[in-house]
């Protein structure tokens, strides 16, 4: 990688950005390959039975009328509980080639994916139907407003999907997307609307905030530092957070108590769960202080599952999502157990929330989608070696998702929960 990011012009940054995204994708990829295994093997004191937490709607029910709500989801319908149905008549919701905002790490068709099956699945909740994503309604609602996604590369994928779902009703010349360091801004001029993405993989300040100068294995998060990034989120009318993958470094997480500038850094090591709990609490505190529950909404997207080990779904050992074109059919499939303890932390913290956070519980429904990852059909970070080329499993990305694809469903759920909580 080149040194930059000190580059002065926005244009230059815009050109560098895709590389940074690739670099980060690669790091996350490495982290998952080597990190998740580790934590799954060693940090599971939880018994399987102990995880049956249902915080998803509890926090919202305490509030009668949420901003933006037009109605209610049918009583007793959990939109996150359902099944995938093949629906070639209504999917995909847009074409890969018609959405210029998809980064080349997610354009699977352009990078040679031989089939499109992954684009035709529609999520069908068991007990009700999802409302159709109405781009006109969404844009009218956002008129004069600011919507922001905050988190890591997976949230960036959801952000891009969201923009793809509505950009086609805006004429050329009345819309733009620009990137300034950590911030990407999509502007719909005639609506006086911006839809933004802010890079903060831990939400808190960390040594991974700069896309170029970072460490792979030695991640450090600064305690109580949410305002470092949070000051850029102020004034948002709708916020969509995520954070998960970057915490998966192993058993312990390094927490900085002082400043990153201290010569001798004051660092403690705590369990991943405790570190994650600290971040969730910081996020909630920030939300309570800076967001107005009568006018604004806050969403939190749960952990995006990866498919790095085929043995998880009963496949041959040593393989991963590469070549997978079918869904996992076992409705009880969950994947690596390490997600459970984090889900539990989220549940515990959100249950006590004094602000109505809308929880997008996409983990289970996404875990069936081993077919939906970008795999080898993406722009590569660096040229592949002959050894890699001879063994595609070795470089398949089983973390990120092709667009159009699974993440459009996350946004249909976001749409459903925004207007029909
Ligand atoms: C998320 O949804 C799945 C599937 O409906 C459910 O089993 C799980 O308990 C939910 N998790 C939370 C934290 O609500
Ligand atoms: C989409 O929303 C707009 C604005 O509320 C409404 O006029 C239109 O009928 C909706 N379209 C569909 C297909 O529901
Ligand atoms: C545009 O929206 C911002 C809030 O995002 C508001 O402060 C401003 O007054 C709006 N401008 C116009 C011309 O409506
Ligand atoms: C992937 O699928 C192709 C075509 O079906 C097959 O030839 C190849 O052996 C598969 N590779 C792996 C690693 O399963």
Automatic annotation (TrEMBL):
In which domain of life is the source organism classified? Eukaryota
Q: In what residue span(s) does the Trichome birefringence-like N-terminal domain sit? A: 76-129
What keywords does the record list, in alphabetical order? Answer: Membrane, Signal-anchor, Transmembrane, Transmembrane helix
**Regions annotated as coiled coil:** none
Q: What protein name does the entry list?
A: Trichome birefringence-like N-terminal domain-containing protein
Organism listed in the record: Carya illinoinensis (Pecan)
Q: Which InterPro entries match?
A: TBL, TBL_C, TBL_N
- Which ranges does the record mark as transmembrane? 16-35
Q: Where in the cell is it found?
A: Membrane
Listed under GO cellular component are: Golgi apparatus; membrane
